[in-house]
Specification:
62% of the residues lie in helices and 14% in strands. Strand 4 and strand 5 form a beta hairpin. Helix 2 runs antiparallel to helix 3 and helix 3 runs antiparallel to helix 4. The two termini are 35 Å apart.
């Protein structure tokens, strides 16, 4: 009778260990096709990722650089689009369009691509740093074995 109670307690305890031993991943998922960042199914911007990474100084520095580079890229795109749009508006009204202004606007917009590319590289690096701190790569599974000892049965955990 006592053996059955002990066996029941052992089974209940070991079942509880497997249930509570599993954790839900709390990492940021990066979509490689579109440079999008997701956290629990919700898309994140650089500004939304910054508070999440405050605990990791290196990841926070990288996401801050990515955010500032993205702002510079957005300003460049806006300035280039304004130059092209203003010239097209002048041509539509019947005025004399300035070709160098259009070419300059296109050049500024094309120049923003490397800025956005470096921003996304910094953001990907920050996400990888953030995720590696939360879930470091496991070495290898550590076996738990049921064995025998001089006093009877034992549970062995080797690490």
């Amino acid at each position: 009778m006592i053996f059955k109670k002990l066996l029941l307690c052992f089974v209940c305890l070991s079942a509880g260990m497997t249930i509570f031993g599993q954790g839900q991943r709390d990492s940021i998922l990066v979509s490689k096709s579109k440079n999008e960042y997701f956290y629990h199914g919700r898309q994140l911007s650089f500004n939304e990722m910054k508070p999440m990474m405050k605990d990791n100084p290196e990841a926070y520095a990288n996401i801050s650089k990515a955010n500032s580079r993205a702002v510079v890229g957005n300003v460049m795109v806006f300035a280039g689009a304004f130059m092209v749009g203003y010239t097209l508006g002048t041509a539509i009204r019947g005025g004399d369009p300035s070709v160098p202004v259009v070419l300059g606007g296109l050049g500024v917009m094309l120049g923003s691509w490397p800025v956005f590319s470096s921003a996304h590289k910094k953001a990907n690096h920050a996400v990888n740093l953030y995720n590696s701190e939360i879930y470091p790569e496991p070495d290898k599974p550590k076996p738990v074995q049921l064995g025998f000892s001089p006093n009877g049965m034992c549970l062995q955990y080797r690490f």
